[in-house]
């Protein structure tokens, strides 16, 4: 019997524990069906822990570092001032574990309602790769004369050639296994210094990947093209802040934040990668059973693809899409089933092996599984 994968599970705050509970039930089913094993350690972190002990990422770093992967729920709580958990935990993990590429698929799944009239699943199948450790997210800046009419605030955006290179190179390799089109999204006409460096790196690396067609779109124009002409995009690579913003727009196009998912990939095997839905902790609906667990379950699919369990990953994705397509609404009381019930339906389909695989193109998960150098 092969070694079990060691997984850290961080349910976190709000709806995090509910949706991660569903992902773990689906993981049980995938293990039973596909014959691999995981050893899971649950790590308490988030608002309660912080309020009781003052602990942030530092306190769990050593317990996470040796794991094969991290499954993450969500973090954030109205009792904790904005920024403390986000900066002190989520960004700290992305930076310390060098989770350089934030991979966010934007796919419209069959049967899932989109607010974009006339959009069909065939036209919306892209991956946005967000640089995940630099840019404005380094949190450097200063304020002078704070609280006076002469207040001055300076906020820095850090862009290193090495940081850009690793995420652009990853994006080229991702594109190679897909439709072979890479779009750089930036604002080179205004952020000239950073924009030039990004463009230079893309141009330099393009010569190593002659099969990939390279394209450029300004971030404001991206907000126009993303909803109206998503078929233009295969892999999009972009800076941290732009990526944060356009992937929320991507989530809207694909039916809402409940469906959108992400992988925070460490690309050199030096620390574990982390997998999470892109929604927040949604404290207003926590405990009601109203949250859609699909984003979290799909993050499990990304994790399985990353670990090299491509077949299980595709089955989890197909089962999720089949259940999603049958829901009368994507969240809330109108969803017609509780969070846990949706999770159980997905798990049953995975366990029986009856999910309709034709519902999902396998390109993304297949490609992630085929990038072994980013695996631990
Ligand atoms: C995201 C979130 C985070 C970010 C927050 C919670 C720190 O919005 O993952 O997109 O800004 O990156
Ligand atoms: Mg965001």
UniProtKB/TrEMBL annotation:
Q: What is the name of the protein in this document?
A: 3-isopropylmalate dehydrogenase
An example of a GO molecular function for this protein is:
magnesium ion binding
Q: What is its cofactor?
A: Mg(2+); Mn(2+)
UniProt source species: Leucobacter chromiisoli
Checking InterPro entries in the record gives: ICDH/IPMDH, IsoCit/isopropylmalate_DH_CS, IsoPropMal-DH-like_dom
The answer to whether the entry has keyword Iron-sulfur is: no
SUPFAM superfamilies from the UniProt entry: Isocitrate/Isopropylmalate dehydrogenase-like (SSF53659)
Report if keyword Manganese is assigned.
Answer: yes
The EC number(s) given in the record are: 1.1.1.85
Question: Which NCBIfam families did the record assign?
Answer: PRK03437.1
Q: Name one Pfam family in it.
A: Iso_dh
Residues spanning the membrane: none
Keyword annotations of the record? Manganese, Metal-binding, NAD, Oxidoreductase
* Domain Isopropylmalate dehydrogenase-like residue range list: 6-346
């Amino acid at each position: 019997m092969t070694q079990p994968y060691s997984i850290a599970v961080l349910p976190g705050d709000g709806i995090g524990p509910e949706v991660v509970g569903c992902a773990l039930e689906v993981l049980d089913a995938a293990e039973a069906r596909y014959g691999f094993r995981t050893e899971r350690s649950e790590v308490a972190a988030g608002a309660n822990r912080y309020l009781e002990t003052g602990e942030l990422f530092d306190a769990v770093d050593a317990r996470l570092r040796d794991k094969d992967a991290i499954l993450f729920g969500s973090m954030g709580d109205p009792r904790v001032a904005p920024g403390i958990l986000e900066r002190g935990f989520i960004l700290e993990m992305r930076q310390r574990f060098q989770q350089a590429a934030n991979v966010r698929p934007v796919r419209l799944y069959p049967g899932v309602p989109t607010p974009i009239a006339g959009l069909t699943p065939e036209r919306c199948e892209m991956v946005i790769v967000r640089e995940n450790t630099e840019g404005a997210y380094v949190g450097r800046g200063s304020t002078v004369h704070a609280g006076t009419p002469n207040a001055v605030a300076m906020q820095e955006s850090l862009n290193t050639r090495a940081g850009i290179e690793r995420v652009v190179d990853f994006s080229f390799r991702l594109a190679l296994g897909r439709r072979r089109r890479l779009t750089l999204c930036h604002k080179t006409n205004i952020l000239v210094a950073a924009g030039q460096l990004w463009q230079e790196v893309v141009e330099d690396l393009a010569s190593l990947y002659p099969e990939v067609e390279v394209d450029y779109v300004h971030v404001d124009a991206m907000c126009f093209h993303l909803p109206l002409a998503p078929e233009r995009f295969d892999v999009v690579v972009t800076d941290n802040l732009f990526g944060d913003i356009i992937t929320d727009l991507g989530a809207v196009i694909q039916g809402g934040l409940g469906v959108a998912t992400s992988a925070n990939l460490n690309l050199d095997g030096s620390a574990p990668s982390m997998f999470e839905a892109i929604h927040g902790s949604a404290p207003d609906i926590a405990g009601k059973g109203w949250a859609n667990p699909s984003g979290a379950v799909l993050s499990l699919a990304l994790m399985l693809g990353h670990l090299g369990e491509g077949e299980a990953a595709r089955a989890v994705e197909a089962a999720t899409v089949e259940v999603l397509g049958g829901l009368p609404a994507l969240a809330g009381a109108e969803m017609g089933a509780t969070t846990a019930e949706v999770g159980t339906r997905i798990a049953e389909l995975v366990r029986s092996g009856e999910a309709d695989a034709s519902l999902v193109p396998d390109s993304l998960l297949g490609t992630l599984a085929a990038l072994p150098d980013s695996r631990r």
